[in-house]
Amino acid sequence: MKNLLLIFIFATFSFSSELNTYLSNLKKEATKENPNFKEFNIKRGEGIFTSKHIGKKGKKIACTSCHGIDLTKKSENYFTAKEIEPLSKKVNPTRLTDVKKVKKWLRRNFKDVYNRVGTAQEKGDVLVYILNK
Ligand code: HEC
């Protein structure tokens, strides 16, 4: 039992440091894209997450169209009406722990909403916004 707990703590810790590594890589990339870049910004992230754009199937949607505006609540996929678990780590601690999953969905979801992939700065901004929710 005690060992299991230790493994759990270790896994949680190493996952979150995995996300930190990803964020610091995004930061390096963002600095290359824009020499004036300083820090990721929650306010800019909010704009990215909540503003509507002509995206998938010509629909005017935002990230909130699928994830909702209150990230501690469940929501529904705009296209398939399938339930989506909350994005907030406060109620769903496994969120943003698996970097492979985070990368895959950011890529897909930016295409859904913006019809293009996100820049390093945009991805970092939106991640710090979600982390703050
Ligand atoms: C068309 C619906 C849809 C839209 C629009 C959408 N998402 Fe998602 N998102 C999903 C689905 C489905 C998943 C994968 C299932 C899950 O993790 O609940 C997901 C997963 C994610 C994840 C992975 C979370 C984790 O578990 O680590 C992140 C991060 C994310 N979305 C961010 C965004 C951002 C940022 C936007 C806007 C650019 C966005 N999403 C727009 C449907 C959407």
Automatic annotation (TrEMBL):
The keyword Metal-binding appears for this protein: yes
Family matches, as SUPFAM superfamilies: Cytochrome c (SSF46626)
InterPro entries, per database record: Cyt_c-like_dom (IPR009056), Cyt_c-like_dom_sf (IPR036909), DUF1924_SHP (IPR015170)
Membrane-spanning segments: none
Record domain Cytochrome c: where: 40-133
Alphabetical keyword list: Heme, Iron, Metal-binding
Top-rank lineage group of the source organism: Bacteria
Heme recorded as keyword: yes
Example of a GO MF term: electron transfer activity
Pfam family, one: DUF1924
Protein name: DUF1924 domain-containing protein
Organism: Malaciobacter marinus
